[in-house]
Structure formats: structure tokens, C-alpha cells
Amino acid sequence: MSGRRRVSKLTRVFSPEGPTLRELAVQALSSVERGYDLLAPKFDHTPFRTPDPVLDAVASALEKRGPFESGLDLCCGTGAGVEVLARVCRERVTGVDFSTGMLAVARERVPTEGPRLGWVRGDARALPFAAAFDLVVSFGALGHFLPRELPRLFGQVHSVLRPGGLFAFPVSAPPRPRSAAFWTLLAFDAVMRVRNAVWRPPFVMYYRAFRFGDLWRELERAGFQVELCPLEEFGRRADGSPRVRMIAARRLP
User: Rounded to 10 degrees, what is the CA torsion of 21, 184, 105, 37?
Assistant: First the structure.
């Protein structure tokens, strides 16, 4: 019995309530949609969920630019970003995700007080909305898109924003090449690329898919005016640059 308990503890990752290594392996060998359906009940107990300090910092930065009437959380997952929007939007907040499992968890865990909440199953590359939002946010979703998909993705965000509307998302400064974090993320991406080369369907999830300049350039091409907002809660690096920024891209008329 004690041996089985030790094995169970060793095979659980991130937290005691998190997925086992076996569950993660099954997820990783599934499609993105199916993988997140499987992970949904335990997603909030993994580091894949955006940490609360980042959510709070973005909410504080948006409060200075608001209030907003209606907001959309792009690739909302279990609804953490919807809770950010509920702090800064007065009328309506919508979460969109293509994982039925993640949306089911979001419906259960997100409080219903405040602005009207809505949940929509949909693909971020083909959003089922008109230009009806003043604010779009996204947390941790860009790694699920390939560089060639950025124009279409940002074009979709542009199409659902009213003129002057804001698209906001946090980005962290890349780790230094000599740091353990740099090599950990590089190794993770390498494993995912090998997996996608030999296994179908693909599971697109990369941590180092884009350079900062690529994001800026594609946002401008899609019709946004881009502003950088340092999130000072996370301090600065030795060279004085912010550790975390919020990209605030405003839709031009």
C-alpha cells in the first residue's frame, strides 16, 4: 500500500490535484481540442493556467483604460480571463473556446455576478461574432497558433472589435540564453516538434513560437496601433527592461 502511495505521488505533477503523468501523455497524444477536453477538470491545478498575479496586473492596467462596455476572452479555457473582463466591463462578457470540456468547467466556476456572461464554442481563427466588442483579451493562447496563422488570428480579433476597441494580452521577457528556464522551454518546444513530426493529429503548443517583433509587425498589418504597458508588479531585469509587459493594440478606425 505505501509503495502505491509513493508511486501515485510521484506520478502526479504540479499539485496533488493535478493530472498524472499518464494523463498528460494521453492528452499530448491527442488533438488540441480533445487534449484540453481531457485536461479540463484538472487544468486549474497546472502551470498552464495563467497565474493570478498576471491576471491581477492586467486587470489593473485595463482599469486605467476603461471602463469598457463589452469584452471577449479569446481562447478562454476555464474562464480566468473572463473574471478579468468582469472587473472592467459594465454590460457583457463573453468567453470563446473550442474545447467543450474547458467551457463546461468555466460555466461552473466563474461567478455570475456583474455583467452578463456568455460562453461560445468556437475557433479563434473563425470567430462567430460581428464587431460587437470594446475589449478582447487573451491569456496564454498564442502558443497554440503557428507563425503563419498570426495574420488570420489578428484579422479575426480586428473584425470583432468596434473601431477604437482594444486587444490586450501579457507577454513575458524571454529568459536569458544561459538560464535554466531558457533551456527548459527550448527542450519542451523541441519535444513538441518531434511529436508533431511523427504523430497525428498534431498538438500545437509551443512556448517560443514568436519573437516580440513578429507580434508587433503582424498586429500593425492587421490594422492595430500598438502600445506597450510595463507591468511593474513584476519588476525589471538587470538591463532595465520590464520582466512582463501588456501589449495594448487598439483597432484603428
Answer: -60
Mean pLDDT for the chain overall: 86
Query: C-alpha cell of 177?
Result: 540564453
SS3 185: helix
Task: Return the DSSP state at 129.
Answer: -
Task: Scan for cell 502551470, then name that residue.
Answer: 47
Q: Which of 71-100 are b and which e, b meaning 16 or more Cβ less than 10 Å from the residue's Cβ?
A: bbbbbbbbbbbbbbbbbbbeebbbbbbbbe
Burial status of residue 178 (CB atoms within 10 A of its CB: 0-12, 13-18, 19 or more): exposed
- The DSSP bridge partners found for residue 20 are 12
Asked if residue 40 lies in contact with residue 62, where contact means CB atoms within 8 angstroms, the answer is no
User: What does each C-alpha distance from 51 to 57, 88, 146 come to in angstroms?
Assistant: 10, 19, 24
Report how far residue 52's alpha carbon sits from residue 56's, in angstroms, rounded to the nearest whole number.
6
Name the nearest CA neighbour of 65 among 250, 212, 243.
Answer: 250
pLDDT tens profile 148-199: 999 999 999 999 999 999 999 999 887 777 777 776 767 776 777 887 788 7
Is the omega angle on the peptide bond into residue 147 within 30 degrees of 0, that is, cis?
Answer: no
> Whole-prediction pTM value?
0.86
Q: Give me the residue label for grid cell 503582424.
A: 218
